[in-house]
Structure formats: C-alpha cells, structure tokens
Amino acid sequence: RGVAAVAGALPRLVRTVGRQRAMEMALTGRTFKAEEVREWGLCNKVVPDGDVVAEAIRWAEEIASNSPDSVIVSREGVKIGWEGIGVQEGTDRLRDDWFERMQSEENMKEGLMAFVEKRAPKWVDSKL
What we know:
The structure is a single chain. This protein has 128 residues and is mostly helical. The chain contains seven helices and no strands. It starts with 8 loop residues before the first helix and ends in an 11-residue tail after the last helix.
C-alpha cells in the first residue's frame, strides 16, 4: 500500500494467476491465505507452521540428488520460458547455449552409465 510492484512482478503475476486475480491482488493490497494462493498456482505447497525449514531442506536435498549440470540447464530453460520468449526460440537458445556444453561434460555420461548399470550416479561439480 503506497507502492507498486514495477520490477516485473505484475506482468509475471498476470501470467501465473490470471488477470482477474492479479488485479485483485495488486489493487486491493490485501493479504491472502496460503491455501488460497496455492489453489491459484502462486505456490507449490502449504506446510504447517514450524515445518517450513524442514520442507525446504527436503526439496533442496531432492534437487541436489540430481546432476548439477541438469539442474543448471533445466533452471535456465524455465527462466527462458518465463521471459516470454517463443517456444522455438527458447528451445534453440537452450540447445545452443547450454545443451551442447552439457553433453560434453562428465555428469551426462555418468547419468547415462548409472541408468544402464542400474546404480546410483556419482555426480561431480558442474563446470558449466
């Protein structure tokens, strides 16, 4: 109240929750219940008070169990899509800027070998 979200939040909010809900949120400035905004797609999950840190750690561990290279490239792909770039241009950019580099790194080879050998992969730090 008394300020406006002008650093890109409002267009992104419209994409996430739709025009009507974005207008309600931006123009009223009121507080919304966590379950309500989860239903709108603004957050993935609502956890009980006191469980937030444990849940965040669980998510971090799950992400960290993946190839660091695939996490980096996947994150970049989502960011490209978020910025409103067309599907073909976004795909081309991801492939040209990231995927070719990822293919030459040790983690992609390790992931494929671990899958074939039916064992847990042993990731190395990303060089991307």
